[in-house]
Fold these 2 entries.
Entry 1:
Amino acid sequence: MTPAQFVTESAPSGEWKRQGNRFTGRISRDSASAPGEGPDEHGRWPVEPGRYRLVVSLACPWAHRSLIVRKLLGLEDAISLAIVDPIRDEQGWRFTLDPDGRDPVLGISYLSEVYLATDPQYEGRVTVPAIVDTVTGQVVTNDYPQITLDLSTEWIDFHRPGAPDLIPAEREEMDQLIEEIYADVNNGVYRCGFATTQETYEAAYDALFARLDVLEQRLDDRDYLLGDSLSEVDVRLFTTLVRFDAVYHGHFKCNRNKLTEFPNLWAYARRLYQQPGFGETVDFDQIKRHYYLTHTTINPNGIVPKGPDPRSWTA
Ligand SMILES: N[C@@H](CCC(=O)N[C@@H](CS)C(=O)NCC(=O)O)C(=O)O
């Protein structure tokens, strides 16, 4: 069998099995803690504008969700932002884009410093997005699916006037879509790219394109996945679609079709890209350099492709 990019997350079958999220604290309106205090007895941290720092890589699709939702809801002043270098070294994500290579608020050079300060035994991959408490220096959460939901529901008092309601009152349909899109598309592209056997790669590839075919059809008569208005699931699909032709099609061998060959999905992705909060958060250069330069098992020569031409997103 060929070597895996992340050995501990590769099953004996060759299938990619993503690690769990280690830190699952919640910042909640229901916290019984006073400002400046840690979590209450239920693990809920107090909502406090200016206190927490969201750490992202612009390359990462899971972090990208939180960046978009923070912007859509107008939470930029309430939750500050740290951006890591898209290229990890052997110690992981680093703050080499900042002066002196340190995050100016947290004072750290590597994200691993706060992971290890929070859990000295931590041995998994140090991942973005993460929300870090600037008072204690602890990681509150790296639970990326919960982070965006909580920005909608728990930070509501700090949303900008007219902020979109990204969570529908009736959640069943959205939650079902979220689950299918996560399994087959968001994580599906990784299951293609990180598979180490032909069979597991082909199974992931088939599930991915079967799901994209269903979504293509769904968008035949609607602008957004749930109908007329934008919701959380659109954000989640967008961050994978925007990386599709630049990275997943080639690097992860998701190459039955390009995104541009699905008329509805391509029109939908471009429509989102051109809305406030979406295109302005996309950095194709960092996206491409991250994937092609850090997955050395998949792309050992480190060549970063020149294309595709990003102007197609705005033309
Ligand atoms: N927290 C999740 C998802 C977040 C995630 O995978 N983020 C990637 C970037 S897209 C990351 O931080 N990877 C660190 C690494 O590859 O070492 C996980 O642990 O798998």
Entry 2:
Amino acid sequence: MPDLAISTRGLRKTYRTRRGRTVVAVQGLDLDVPVGGVHGFLGPNGSGKTTSIRMLLGLIRADAGTMTVFDRPVPARLPEVVGRVGAIVESPKFFPAFSGRKNLELLAAAIGAPKQRVTEVLEQTSLGERGKDRFKGYSLGMKQRLAIAATLLKDPDLLIFDEPTNGLDPAGIREIRETMRGLGDQGKTVLVSSHILAEVEQVADTVSIIGHGRLLASGTVAEVIGGGTTTTVKIGVADREAATRVLTAAGLVVRADGNYLLVDGVEHPAELTKRLADQQLYVNELVPIRADLESVFLELTAGEGLA
Ligand SMILES: Nc1ncnc2c1ncn2[C@@H]1O[C@H](COP(=O)(O)OP(=O)(O)OP(=O)(O)O)[C@@H](O)[C@H]1O
């Protein structure tokens, strides 16, 4: 077993809504995050990611279960490790009229971080040149990177980012991804939650997939992809609409891809061609696509999280 930055066992949290309804947000979550590298914490909206992160950070109390951060039971011994943890759970507040650098200098002074750290963290988040510009002129991606820079001030070993790319354009998403990859490569542990697999697949070393507050799969990206028994195939067929109807009725997930169809969850491609041929629909091209995390995710979380 590798060294773990985070470990939870049987973690559980129930909310009571104002109308008296009970919502089980996290139900018996077992999560292991190895030390070093980027770990994707993945699940559909409402699957319990934010709730789990808030419990780990001691922001809300768990109903049951155990958690450790760097082998210390939390929340009991959180004070011993809190200095090694940086998190962005909600967007921090910065002064709009001050530059990014000035904002960071104020924060550094408040937490007792050396002033030269500010230059380092601006570099680490590729904000170096724009550090002297006013915060209010920053793009959303730059604001988010400044938030990451702020968490880096105290040089934490574990960084926790809850949906850091929400609302960003593709360029902003790429910048955040590169920042996370850089941190992982330096030996930091980065836990990043997301409901969008494509974003995390490219950057994560290991992943945990959750649904309805429970662990559905975990391991290296290759292990999780390899664990699926089915694959995605790309097919060319003249009447795509009719083919979609036939395949959907057979329980397969069909997506349009230009003049082709992508069919997820295929066990035997031959069966698919036979099914279509039975309806006088003839496949003129069939290419098995490497199983990707997206199709594994869709399979694992089918029907999950739509509370
Ligand atoms: N304060 C609360 N009171 C009542 N129910 C809540 C509260 N916070 C979260 N929930 C419910 O708990 C479940 C898990 O929510 P949570 O925010 O942890 O999921 P998530 O995976 O982070 O989703 P998202 O990606 O949408 O943030 C959802 O059904 C949500 O509606």
